[in-house]
């Protein structure tokens, strides 16, 4: 799983502690943690997960979230694209944008 996701060109970590990604700083390892840096990378990862019927979870900012010390035996996707922009009368916030920045 790790090697296959790495071939997509995204940042992938095996057995990564999820404590670093939650505000409570607790939680065991994810079998695979994927850190897409763009919408295109996110789409590629989601398509791969669907094609492989892989169990996955999208982790936002990790606030108000408890992760078991046993971790997650699947793919955790943590978007790292966080841009916020205004175009005409529309506010566009990417998946990883924090509410305080919006």
Automatic annotation (TrEMBL):
Q: Name one GO cellular component term.
A: cytosol
| GO BP term, pick one | cell wall organization
Question: Which residues, by range, are in coiled-coil regions?
Answer: none
InterPro entries to which the protein is assigned, alphabetical: FAD-bd_PCMH, FAD-bd_PCMH-like_sf, FAD-bd_PCMH_sub1, MurB, Oxid_FAD_bind_N
Pfam families cross-referenced by the UniProt entry: FAD_binding_4
Domain of life here?
Bacteria
Stretches assigned to the FAD-binding PCMH-type domain: 25-102
Q: Which GO terms describe its molecular function?
A: FAD binding; UDP-N-acetylmuramate dehydrogenase activity
In terms of PANTHER family, this protein maps to:
UDP-N-ACETYLENOLPYRUVOYLGLUCOSAMINE REDUCTASE
Question: HAMAP family annotated for this entry?
Answer: MurB
State what protein this is by name: UDP-N-acetylenolpyruvoylglucosamine reductase
**What species does this protein belong to?**
Candidatus Uhrbacteria bacterium GW2011_GWA2_53_10
Lineage, highest ranks first? Bacteria, Candidatus Uhriibacteriota
